[in-house]
Amino acid sequence: MREKRNATEAAGLTTLAGDMFGEGPRTPMLPGTWDQDQGG
Fold first, then answer.
1. Cα–Cα distance for residue pair 29/11, rounded to 1 Å
2. Is this structure's pTM higher than 0.70?
3. For FRET with 16, which of 10, 26, 27, 33 sits at 20 to 30 Å CA-CA?
4. How many C-beta atoms surround the C-beta of residue 21 within 10 A?
5. Residue 37 has what DSSP assignment?
6. What pLDDT does 30 receive?
């Protein structure tokens, strides 16, 4: 059975491990098939 998640929980974000840049930026994860040059 799949666990229900709270709707306010962030989805599709990743946090980089802390390093010399601090805690790191959060970046949206996009599918490999996403084409940002596609008009829309």
1. 9
2. no
3. 33
4. 9
5. T
6. 75
